[in-house]
Amino acid sequence: MQTTSGHVRQASAKEPAKRAPFSVEVVAIGTELLLGHLDSNSSWIGEQLALAGIDCYFQTRVGDNVERISEVLGTALQRADAVVTCGGLGPTQDDVTREALARLAGVDLVRDPALAAGIEQRYAQRGRAMPTSNLRQADLPRGARPIPPSTGTAPGIELELPTGLVLSVPGVPSEMQDMVGRHVVPALVARAGSRAVIVSRVLRTWGLSESAVAEMVAPRVEALDEAGNALTIAFLASGIEGIKVRLTAKAADHAGAGSMLDREEAELRRLLGDRVFGVDGTTMEMAVGTLLEARGLTVATAESLTGGMVASRLVSVPGAGAWMLGGVVAYDTAVKHTVLGVAEDEVVTAGAAQSMARGVRSLLGASIGLSLTGVAGPDSQEDKPPGTVFCGLSGPGSFEGHIRLSLPGDRDGIRQLATISALDWLRRKLV
Amino acid sequence: MQTTSGHVRQASAKEPAKRAPFSVEVVAIGTELLLGHLDSNSSWIGEQLALAGIDCYFQTRVGDNVERISEVLGTALQRADAVVTCGGLGPTQDDVTREALARLAGVDLVRDPALAAGIEQRYAQRGRAMPTSNLRQADLPRGARPIPPSTGTAPGIELELPTGLVLSVPGVPSEMQDMVGRHVVPALVARAGSRAVIVSRVLRTWGLSESAVAEMVAPRVEALDEAGNALTIAFLASGIEGIKVRLTAKAADHAGAGSMLDREEAELRRLLGDRVFGVDGTTMEMAVGTLLEARGLTVATAESLTGGMVASRLVSVPGAGAWMLGGVVAYDTAVKHTVLGVAEDEVVTAGAAQSMARGVRSLLGASIGLSLTGVAGPDSQEDKPPGTVFCGLSGPGSFEGHIRLSLPGDRDGIRQLATISALDWLRRKLV
Predict the structure, then answer these.
(1) Architecture per CATH, A197-279
(2) Scanning every residue of chain B, which has its alpha carbon at the shortest distance from the alpha carbon of A321?
(3) Candidates B6, B35, B65; nearest CB to A32
């Protein structure tokens, strides 16, 4: 084990001494992955497989080399029932996954006329000249089936071999994620023995430990266990971004799976309450923005130790202009006094936090002022240890107040935790 | 290939059709790595191997399972001369790398009395009771040598087998990096055929493409090629953080390597000029802070599209209080007018950038005001497309002016590039 965080808890994540009946390996292809480039694709695919209940015991990275790719795939199919590869499906000469699959299968590459026409058409629509090399993306190992892309131009490849199934997807993250979610995971779940439609939904929570979430949700997990495995719940700790609760429904069709998920989401929200801040790709700052916009409120921030991180996360949301006015970074104590009108001498205090929130709300003319002041470290300040943070709110009615936090970690960790803690506090006030 | 960025360019990074005489594999151990946890350790080790000129063709991830770890190591040693493993050396029951090495070697584990005493002593010094299970970290496969830790309590393991060399390091990044830099890379370089001391230094540049850096440095690369391979230069593109130029010197001792690096660094700085912003771990914001502090200047920021990212990077530097006063996030146009005194109606302009810089400098009483205004997208603004950014400076003498940037990418990419561009512009003004 490398760290204690970031693992999925579910039955299928346990490692049995003997191989399970069905397992899948992930092979990431690209020389740059061997030279320092972070392989986030494999991690993402690994998470999707785990959450779908599919066992994965090995992941491999290999360079853009036909011989070595086919060797790795051969080794993987000795150990597993199926392999997912990502990368090496682009149009350039160093994209050789197609050739490696053909070599593995002992067949030649043939150009698929329908794929070629589709690629040409996409270029024509954009009024751009297509490099001829792009048509390489229409080549398939004889006997393979294309996985159609919904974005981009690179199709994936599905290749059935006597030793197992190979599913190849592009390395561009957005295209990869689309194809894995839409085709690869359902195909593997079906192969693993299920013929049903599989649909997932992630509830994102903040402010609870993984074990606390598990405890709160336990009644539902037990009820679902008793009801069979048509609907399962898995937990994933995502560092400072909170705990994800993933629901996976198996049903005869999408409508059936959707209504199972709707019912279960309602049950879980009843247990988890306002700790759920969003669904699937919703971030904390998106959740805050949606609530502000719905209530016709605007916000301004006053930050000391976070130095603009709260403001920056809010501004990152497209359309933030409707509810985010801006803020003041008051890192220097004098700036807290002169710009924000803080009267307190000591600035790592509840009073100073409250004054900062009031000051920025008034200066920028916002409905709500949100502030943070504290000690990021490495040194103590005003006799308070690193991790001591006060957040303040100023606004109409219930939007007045402060909280005190004691956060763990180094300078960077404290600043990040302070940022999301403040955003979550505002969010829960807005709910 | 997965993307076009982030690759090391040097002879050893090319992939020959046949295996090179000496190669190394990386095996990352930890079940969480199969379930979505990002494997940054392997990427870091891969980069170190590449920069040291050691070929690496495969990387594997495997869970905390004795049987599967030893199987993967066996496979790797069939293909390569040596294997570096990371992870699974901690004190808990799921840390089983030691057991897997013993199984692979067909030997038992024996407790090393010196290691055990060292671990006990470290706990005693901190006045803490040691869990007995911690002594598992003193167990070694019979015949293996410990790699002493300089931090942490987990020693590494060096195991010589008939099929090759295994070097196992902990998965905690700081301990891993220390042990790889201090012991693993030198041991592998020596094994690859060199008996010399190897020392590296990274010059960090910003504002140039990889090919431009290569062109500027070409005279030195040629001169070094002619002089033999005692000193080599490699390039590494690190995304928005610029291009790294890595010098690696081989010499009889550290002093000799150090003076070779000093001489070559001076030569390269002559060619690259102020495009070099730092050495090794120096970040852009640290470089800016060091220059400000040396000149006794303070800075304040005024940000629109970056929403506090520039301020946040400056505040992230420990000791930033000496030169960073704070800033204003003026995302809303009205805030630019009322708080910063911008008179211009159009705010994505050079004039508005200049006014913002003047306004924040005056409001916060800083020596220098630095501003950014522009279009992050997805929509155009004031008839200017996403990526249009103006930076302004206000301060004594040469610290007055503006620049216009046209940045590529999506909303997030544009904001990040704008941030580092503005910091680099201020840095070069300060040099």
Answers:
(1) 2-Layer Sandwich (3.30)
(2) B332
(3) B6
pLDDT in tens, B294-320: 999 999 999 999 999 999 999 999 999
* pLDDT per position as a tens digit, B128-145: 777 777 888 999 999 999
- What's the whole-model pTM score? 0.74
pLDDT per residue over A328-339, tens digit each?
999 999 999 999
Q: How confident is the model at residue B285, as a pLDDT?
A: 98
CA distance B401 to B381: 23
B365 contact residues in A (CB cutoff 8 A): 334, 338
| Chain A / chain B CB contacts < 8 angstroms | 308
Closest by Cβ to A324, choosing from B28, B33, B331:
B331
Topology of domain A285-430 in CATH is Maf protein (3.90.950)
CATH 3.90.950.20 domain range(s) in chain A:
285-430
For position A37, what pLDDT does the model report? 81
How large is the average pLDDT for residues A129-138?
Answer: 82
- Over residues B172-200, the mean pLDDT reads 85
Nearest-5° Cα angle at A41, A36 to A42 = 90
Range(s) within chain A of domains with CATH label 3.30.70.2860: 197-279
For residues B171 and B177, give the distance between their C-alpha atoms in angstroms, rounded to a whole number: 9
Q: How far is CA A427 from CA A121, A284, A401, B213, in A?
A: 46, 8, 14, 47
pLDDT of residue B195: 57
Contact A33 B2 (CB under 8 A): yes
Numbered ranges of CATH 3.40.980.10 in chain A: 8-191
Question: How would residue A195 be classed by pLDDT, with cut points 50, 70 and 90?
Answer: low
Contact residues, chain B, for A415 at CB < 8 Å? 312, 315-316
Task: Give the residue on B whose Cα is nearest the Cα of A7.
Answer: B32
Q: Does domain B284-430 have CATH number 3.20.20.100?
A: no
Find the helix or strand (DSSP H, E) in which A25 lies: strand A24-29
Q: Which residues have C-beta within 8 Å of that of residue A29, sequence separation ≥ 6?
A: A61, A62, A63, A64, A69, A85, A86, A87, A88, A97, A100, A171, B2
Please name the CATH architecture into which domain B8-191 falls.
3-Layer(aba) Sandwich (3.40)
Nearest residue in chain B measured CA to CA from A33: B43
